[in-house]
């Protein structure tokens, strides 16, 4: 707090709240021991309270204030806590028609990209690639895999938002050119999370959902992959129609799946992964990039919630170094542009209660997030 306190106890409405100061004080005093109360020079009703565990109490206060279209934040100042109350931002109604149009356009774009990936295949590959599943079925599986990974990633965020009764838009899908057919999807949060637990869940829910789906898609891709004779494989390698790939040129997750015994390949044969694996590769890339601890990315939310603001800023520089070393120059540049177009380019999403620590169960999930980041990392 930078303003000098202006003590007041007058039971008048506090602009622009539309509720008298005494009622606001009663809401706060119902759960906290108030040491001082005043309206600061910015017109915010401000309450100095004793230092104590406040996570549950503050969430209850937010519930009371929501009935009056108000929000509050709490910060530590010395050995005391300061609660500031302010109006909720006035936002326009979500325009669901835009979400639906973009989603329909993305379905068409992904379908077209999948068609090109399947039906532009060299005839020497197509001759054995569609023995267990037709080309049309694989095209549908590829498109469904891409849309499923990206869509369920965003629905994971939506589920976390609904669970915590936060306010957010429906997902915005962005169509793109082949070979992907999409630039991904986002949801827009229309209000800040209450505490670090909510911030963590917001960031973690999307990647973990997408990660599970990409594993399913990768398993399906491996199960429908044909096995060809090693002699034919050698000919195709010589013609540069096939190539081997392993970590770090593909996610280490795929190496683990390949060694898991999902498919038994007879002696003298080579397994050629079907094109459906392309959907899993896109999913791994989306998961890896989103888990980077940068700005408003999902990984940024996770690190900001777990380690705090200073660590979040420090790990962002490490993440940019990793992007550049791995060859993601274009994405790093795009991210920098978006960051510096925002009002707070290096800051993460700040919860209303930035004092209460992250729950222990989520600290365990933080380790899982690091594992997912490692398993989906790939060098371009």
Word description of this protein:
The longest helix has 29 residues, at 135-163. The protein has helices spanning 21-29, 55-66, 96-119, 123-129, 135-163, 196-223, 230-238, 252-258, 277-290, 298-307, 309-326, 329-341, 360-376, and strands at 34-39, 45-50, 70-77, 80-87, 172-175, 182-186, 227-229, 269-271. It has two domains: 21-87, Translation Initiation Factor Eif1 (2-Layer Sandwich); 96-376, no CATH class. Helix content is 52%, strand content 11%. The two termini are 47 Å apart. The protein is α+β, with helices and mostly antiparallel strands. The protein has a four-stranded antiparallel beta sheet, covered by helices on one side. A two-stranded antiparallel ribbon has the order 5-6. Residues 1-14 have low confidence and may be disordered.
Radius of gyration: 26 Å
Please state how the strands of the largest beta sheet are arranged side by side: 1-2-4-3
Oligomer type: single chain
Structural class: alpha+beta
Uncertain residue segments:
1-14
Q: Give the overall silhouette.
A: elongated
Distance between the termini: 47 Å
- Structure summary, number of beta strands: 8
Mean pLDDT: 88
Helix content percent band: 40-55%
Beta percentage is: 5-15%
| Tally of helical segments | 13
Outline the biggest β-sheet.
Answer: 4 strands, antiparallel
Q: What topology does this entry show?
A:
Elements: H1 21-29, E1 34-39, E2 45-50, H2 55-66, E3 70-77, E4 80-87, H3 96-119, H4 123-129, H5 135-163, E5 172-175, E6 182-186, H6 196-223, E7 227-229, H7 230-238, H8 252-258, E8 269-271, H9 277-290, H10 298-307, H11 309-326, H12 329-341, H13 360-376
Antiparallel strand pairs: 1-2, 2-4, 3-4, 5-6, 7-8
